Amino acid sequence: MAVKLQTIKDFRNYISSELSGFYSDQESAAISGIIVSKIFKLSGIASMLRENEILAGRKEAGMAVNYCRKLKTGEPVQYVTGETSFYGCTIKVSRGVLIPRPETEELVDLIVRENKGFAGRIIDIGTGSGCIAVALAKSLPSSLVTGIDRSKRAIKTAIRNAALNCAEISFLEADIFKTGSSETIPAGLIVSNPPYVRISEKQFMHRNVLDFEPPRALFVPDNDPLRFYRAILRFAVDALDPGGAIYFEINESLGKQVHDLLRSHNYGEIRIIKDINGKERFATGRKRS
After folding, report:
1. pTM tops 0.90, yes or no
2. What is the pLDDT of residues 246-258, one digit of tens each?
3. Does 102 or 54 have the greater pLDDT score?
4. H or E element: which one contains 209?
5. Which parts of 41-151 fold into alpha helices (H)?
6. 257 with 182, same domain?
């Protein structure tokens, strides 16, 4: 093999060099750290402490070459490695399920902070990889979590992630536009990160999202961007207990519309909450009796 890599430092330099021109220096450094951790099964700190040791042979060098080849096509590093970290959990991902975002970790953190000791049922609608359901089941261990998704592939991935993280979760393959709330046990909390990116906003998105991630998990029509929220609120008429709370991740441009939608469905204590970047990213309200 033409590429001779022996130390972790060699790997970092090689990966950064290969990705130059495809990613910024900061992105290349972050990706190289992820790839190194994957190849050597070391934490970030451990890999830094051992970066000058001779640890690699032909197998590891070959893995690095293959990873870089895929990364240079624009394929997201999470799909390349097959996993990502989410709120302290390892989440397996593949094409067909949305890659968990940092904003969604913020949503989970908001729910955990506001519902410490919660012992009721939580329904995660549009569970995808199961990242929200898994993180909530681990962080609120007295709760009973159910994940719902219309994608068979997503449900299989979510079941795998629940097992990987030793999280007890029930999953239901169902379409929220067709599923009656009578099919689930009423819950004290409902959470959802539904599709909310308008078609017209595609032009502002990176190609590694557009070319690789599932469109139906991302996009909604410009003329009906709240269609999933309305469906979820119809479902919640019977599926959410009186006094129960609902939490949404939302399009930063649609905070007022989501607020008004919640109010029109008899929710109180409505809040539109900004994320760490100052964008209106979350909505929550409590169902009136």
Report:
1. yes
2. 999 999 999 999 9
3. 102
4. helix 207-210
5. 44-49, 58-71, 77-81, 102-114, 131-139
6. yes
